[in-house]
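Problem: given the chain below (328 residues), write out its structure.
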Amino acid sequence: MPDQDNTAGPDMPEPSASSPVTPDPTEPVTPVSTGPDASASTELVPPVSVDPATSAPGRPWSRRGKAPARRSWVDEDDSVPADDPPEHPWWRSALRWLAEFAVYVLIAVLIVTLVRIFLLQAYLVPSGSMEQTLRNEDRIMTWKPGEPQRGDMVVFRDDASWLDSSVEEAPAWKQFLAWIKVLPPTDEKYLVKRLIGLPGDHVTCCDSAGRITVNGQALDESAYLYYTSPALAQVPFDVVVPEGRVFVLGDHRDGSADSRAHMCQLNTSVATPEAAFPTLESIQGKVFAITWPIDRWQTFSRPAVFDQIPAATESPPSPTEAQWTCPR
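Solution.
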């Protein structure tokens, strides 16, 4: 048998890469296996023209002339996306929200408690003894850090029972807030006065102009002093403040039951230092603002007149050795 020449002859042009290959209708059909066993099932697939120029790079072509189908992001066996998170019941989200809210509340209570213990505390003015600077039922804010100084308006615990000693039982919510230090203790009472003398200060009333003197320095209290009866406001006294104690007066000078009024209980000659001089330890803070009512909102600073007072020259006596002239 003569050898067949597989080279293209002059009457057989080479197929171009840009032109599709047209199948020869006379070419026999090739059987293609479609099952796992090639001999069990076959399908007759005619040749298909392929245009290499328009085929996508990197995507193989089958004998059928079609590119393999891309994998869908939707699972063929499910009607929802495969990566969609499962739905949780509504109560689980509600519990998560409540837990977060409880954490925020605890943090807020902790912050308020720390502020109340170390920095600030609000109080209610219990009487009119500080008029017109402070009025009865005013809400005031005190600042705790720092030592009290002459001229400060101070809030102190009523250890000497200047107020009515009876205590009404507070509501449960107030007791709880007092227990966590948000409010002052409900079984204690507090007063507010102006601090005039520190331990060892020599305080007298009055000079020829009716002014109080501290360590020989007369005080001009006209900026805040209020009274209607000069005779009651200028009751004479002479005292050296005992050790660990302070001397306080109300701005409403003739309407205040203060250190001057308690140096002699019930107008007798019996001296009672425990009742007349609040302790330094009982002072809760210095008043720096009125927060309620809104129309009375204002801030306070220590009057400059107290900067002129010299230091005490005497050692403070013990409370049991202190002596003074009782006001008459």
